[in-house]
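tool_call: predict_structure(chain=1)
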Amino acid sequence: MGFREVYPEDIDLNEPVFIEFDGLPVPFFIEEFQPKGTTKALVRLTGVKSLADAEELVGKDVSVEEGTLDLEEEEGLGDITGWTLVQDGGTEIGTVEDYEDIPGNPCIYVETAAGSKMIPLHEDLIVDADPEARRLTMRIPSGLLD
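tool_result:
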């Protein structure tokens, strides 16, 4: 399951999510929820017991009722402009200037001493995100900062 406007940590797991079938929202409750990075999660829904059941849901939009979101706890990664980007190991890279949600490859633009750099914001590269310190620690592959 991917998230476009809602972050995994914002979803109230005690409330249903809705999947549209024939123009009508059908409620499903979440049985298991495992975040996979900042924009995806592995989710088991009630009533989805087989691969055939799951295949019926592929590509369908999932929504939640507006009142069931917990948006006050902390900032999501969708608004990380102004955060400090740090390489795993402690080296400060620069300041996040922008975020671009490219389908399948979200990226951040970071202002470094050598100019602006585009860095993929892939879940496998994120080591830590600290909203209080406004600090994002990543394992940035060599060559991306050259």
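agent: Helices lie at 51-55. Proceeding to next step.
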